[in-house]
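Here's what a typical entry looks like (AB hydrolase-1 domain-containing protein):
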Amino acid sequence: MKALLCLLTTGLVARFNLVSGLNLTIGNGVLHRRSYFYVGGSYTPTSGSSNESDVVVSSGQMYVEHLVPLTVTHKLPIVIIPGNGMTGTNFLNTPDGRTGWADYFMGQGYELYIADQPSRGRSPWQQNIDGPQMTFDALTIEQRFTATTKFDLWPQAHLHTQWPGNGSRGDPTFDNFYTSIVPALQSNTEASLKVKHAGVALLDRIGTRTSAVSPQPAIVLTHSQSGQFGWLLADARPSLVKAIVAIEPMGPPFINAVFPPFTPARPFGLTEIPVNFLPPINTAADLQTAVVSSTTNFTCIQQVSPPRKLANVSKVPVLLVTSESGYHAVYDSCSVEFLKAAGVSVDHVNLADVGIYGNGHMMFMEKNGQEIVDRVVNKWLKQIV
């Protein structure tokens, strides 16, 4: 039975509904406790100071928003790392005002840690210490994420139907989304080093909060550019990453695709910085590769046989989710092939294959985002954890 409570405070009325005997909703949101903290920072001398032993600032720290529902029913928390130019607001609510994946997970009894990558959003960028930044212009967002049918830059782009609104400047939903986008580090190598350092500190903090003898792992959820960080954290702390949910993770292996220039990238396959392989490698050049297929906007490169295995990442199960119309529909299968050849257990879900149509790269913000997290992500988590 649902219970209804009314709380009168400073003249305001808040409605609370008991959901499945577990957690309360307040209006459209789940009742929870919110706190925040920073991990991974260090005191760094400022460039050009006359006495660098005294003139220091904190750099490299990562903001983490900690959300705990009234009733926690899952002992493993979820760590969420948003993609390029984004902050944790991506998962709090949608640009048109609906509840986001954070509320869904809390409604299921999950504790959440939502990060802003170092040097971005609420994680400070330090002038003269951190590298240069970039900001996505509005046209790029329209072309790649929200109004892809207007531009038709890849074969599946015309299938996009789930973005709320017309996806263009002047539409309130687009404007709300675009104004949330923040400057991000230009260098994926620098971003990788910073997120790995801070992310490991976060996993260590989570892991030892209940027992230093038996550390507690977490589920890591990544999106797009942050996909590479899931592999890095699993490599650095395989015992502290229970599973990875990769929503259209950065790829494909070894080369850029879809959007020119098609330059070499991710020299370790799906990461910019080293991960552990078996047999071990000294440099990225030790990975022997070959082109297995090529089109006008995408080349699939794989390790030659026998492929080296990802020594630590292969210990962690992965769910990789691909939308019907997003540009990752072009190449995610190549990323999956690389992971599987390297010994990683991957469940690859193309949303259209399970009857979920019309989504793009920002699927968790789209009209059917709750269906995706419920039918695909949570269903998989129930099987794994």
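Residues 31-384 form a domain with the Rossmann fold fold (CATH 3.40.50.1820).

More examples are in the samples folder.
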